[in-house]
Amino acid sequence: MKLLKPQSEVCELWENERVTTLARGSARGALIALIGVSLAGTADVAEFLATRSAMFTDAPGRAAGSVVGLIAWAALLAVATMRYARGDRRGVRAATVGLAGLVAAGNVGLTAIHLKAGVGGLRPIVGGVLGLLALMIALASAAPTSPVPSNRDYR
After folding, report:
1. DSSP output for 99-128
2. Structural domain boundaries of the chain?
3. Looking at residues 99-118, what average pLDDT do you find?
């Protein structure tokens, strides 16, 4: 049984490999967005720590948690930047989603604690939104792209 070659513009898109280019382009766009969100999260936690140096002596547990959050955001920023600069390597997509999940869980948890206690103002809410946004973008950037069928498939 022979497969017929489609007569539409879709055939031209597949033959010219534009579909793959569009998929890769959207993944790179998602990585740029993830880099931006990760940079905002990293900067937010770094600024929080820098302006509250007394917290390290007054509440060392709270300071340690913030340092762990800073490390998680910075690691996500590093992995997203590496993926953008070098492309996907083995395990990097999973690391991106895993770190984004960790950041989202930590920030949403922190938001819930602050809302329940009625403290923190807008900052923890912004952190929770950034965390969820990072996870959604990481999932979008990790979506596998379909291989482009060759012309042999239509013979």
Report:
1. HHHHHHHHHHHHHHHHHHHT-STTHHHHHH
2. 16-143
3. 97
Quickly tell me which residue has 């955001």 as its tokens: 73
Q: How many helices (H) and strands (E) does the chain have?
A: 6, 0
Q: Which two tokens stand for residue 79?
A: 């992995």
Rounded to whole angstroms, the Cα distance separating 18 from 104 reads: 34
Q: What is the pTM of this model?
A: 0.79
What residue type is assigned to position 23 of the chain? A
Span 22-76, pLDDT tens digits? 456 788 999 999 999 999 999 999 999 999 999 999 999 999 999 999 999 999 9
Token pair of 66 as six digits: 């913030």
CA dist 117 and 36 (Å) reads 30
The helix or strand, by DSSP H or E, that contains position 37, with its residue range, turns out to be helix 18-50
Q: Which two tokens stand for residue 147?
A: 């291989």
CB 34 within 8 A of CB 80: yes
CATH architecture of 16-143: Up-down Bundle (1.20)
Least confident among 29-33, 88-92, 146-150: 146-150
- Which DSSP category does 87 fall into? -
